[in-house]
Amino acid sequence: xxxxxxxxxxxxxxxxxxxxxxxxxxxxxxxxxxxxxxxxxxxxxxxxxxxxxxxxxxxxxxxxxxxxxxxxxxxxxxxxxxxxxxxxxxxxxxxxxxxxxxxxxxxxxxxxxxxxxxxxxxxxxxxxxxxxxxxxxxxxxxxxxxxxxxxxxxxxxxxxxxxxxxxxxxxxxxxxxxxxxxxxxxxxxxxxxxxxxxxxxxxxxxxxxxxxxxxxxxxxxxxxxxxxxxxxxxxxxxxxxxxxxxxxxxxxxxxxxxxxxxxxxxxxxx
Length: 270
Fold this sequence. Notes:
Helix content: 25-40%
Strand content: 25-35%
Radius of gyration: 19 Å
Distance between the termini: 12 Å
Mean pLDDT: 96
Order of helices and strands: EHEHEHEHHEHEEHEEEEHEEHH
Shape: globular
Number of helices: 10
Structural class: alpha+beta
């Protein structure tokens, strides 16, 4: 089999290089000819391949590749739903348990959101979690204790406000799902931040999820159309976020489970 590993041309660093090289080496060990291509290169690429492993969030490019007949994993639609936290919430609303959430209304030209912030804080309680709709590694996510703090975070980018699950402060579990099955899980915790992300100083240990947690994660991935994905679950059984291209090196280091060959096996089967 032949494939392209599509990554972002404008993201650099050891963290990304380690992941990309791991995927390339894994493919080679499985007899798959996988070429590294960045999203800029793919705009002008006319080479044929059997599949595209799309490890980026460039939804427009993923859609273009599908239009050109490439088999893209994960699909453009799935990436779009996962990349935008508001779209994730709406797609899963009424299907899996999520923290109470209010998506900010559309506005133009620096509108005053004070009335919205006051109403949302009354509905969700304080403190609450402010999330820009697009962001990774726990960035652009803030804990706000007052309406003034909410207002200080508004910068013209789409955002949502979410109930703060106090029982899960600085703690969650990450489940990796491949082909509708749970393959690895870790419990993350951070004593110095309400966010559990390892990038923000959190630590992790291997974890055996409950049947309910597995069902939540599998249902979330199925609903979002994911071939593979990482699902973050808060204490109390709340789905917090779903990742279409989670950083699988962390969970491999913690659990010893290499998700990469499982992803390639699933792509081959499909």
